[in-house]
Each structure stands twice: as C-alpha cells, then as structure tokens.
C-alpha cells in the first residue's frame, strides 16, 4: 500500500452532523409541499439539484422556489430552510483536521450550494470564528465545479487540480454511491455514519 499523502473529506454527514428531517420540515413550513421528494441527504432533486450543480444561481433558485410555492419568500426564509440540514458542527472534528494538515494535504469534496456556503465561509461557521476555508488546503464544491457526486467528473477535476494521486489518498464520505466511485478511481476509502466520531478509524487507516 502506497503511503497516504492526502485526505479528502465530505462535509455533510462527516464533518457536519445532518438533520434531514428538520430540513424537510422547514421547507414544508415555507410552503414546499413536496419537500420530501426534492430533498435528499446525499443529492437533491429538480431545481434544488440545479442549485447544487451550478446550473442556476441563487437568485434564479429563489425565484423558482417562489413560483413553486406560490409565495413571495424572502432570502432569509429560504436560507433558514436550507440551514435546517445543519444539526451540529463538532469543533473537535475541525480541530482534528488542523492536526492532520501538519502531515497531510487535506481537501473538501462536497455536494453543497452557495446559500449554505455563505454561512460556512463566514466567521459564523464555528464558535472559534473561523470560516470553513481555514481547515482545508483546497475546497471542491459541486456548485463551483458544476457537477455533483457521485459523478466521477467532480473527482477527476479534484485529481487534476489539487493535484493528487488516488492511490495516495484517503476519501471519507458517508454515501455508499460516492464511496463506490472513489474506490473505482483507486482511492482508499472510509464510510462513516452521520454523527460518528471517525477519528480513530481514520488514524488506523493512516497507520497501515
């Protein structure tokens, strides 16, 4: 086994604890009756997916959501609903990333959108007042790359841009479909459960 030099983390379900039920409830509150069908823990559907893969911008998404609900929704109401996904941001996991960066290159590879990222990239992201960018060498987000996991194209973009060699990289993601694509590309992988403290498991892989 080649020595691991890089670690790639997913965001939701790995670094951030997710609450899918709360997100669905909040979107239903603002009038999205089919929220259960549109919202997925791993990859959204319809125009929600279009926001996450960069096909539409925030203004277009907000307009489409207003049309979909038949309501004049404010940006704050829409952001409140999206933020329903966020159950907790465990500081101990972020601190662990800083420790890992002393020996490894650490990357983010996430299906996300500019509304959630407007919070994540601000000082409000952690009690420590540090934005998400402070914890990674580079970040690859679906809406900026223009494609969502599990499409191999988002992995290829990261491999080329970082650059990194999959055989020298550990990929940590909570979605089976993403893990399978990563394995097919030659990454070492670990699939934690949402909310899991995966630090020991990651250290065990790195020690091999």
From TrEMBL:
Q: State the superkingdom.
A: Bacteria
Q: Which InterPro entries match?
A: HAD-like_sf, HAD-SF_hydro_IA, HAD_sf, PGP-like_dom2
**PANTHER family, per database record:** ALPHA-D-GLUCOSE 1-PHOSPHATE PHOSPHATASE, FLAVIN MONONUCLEOTIDE HYDROLASE 1, CHLOROPLATIC
What this protein is called in its record is HAD family phosphatase
> Which organism does this record belong to?
Parabacteroides merdae
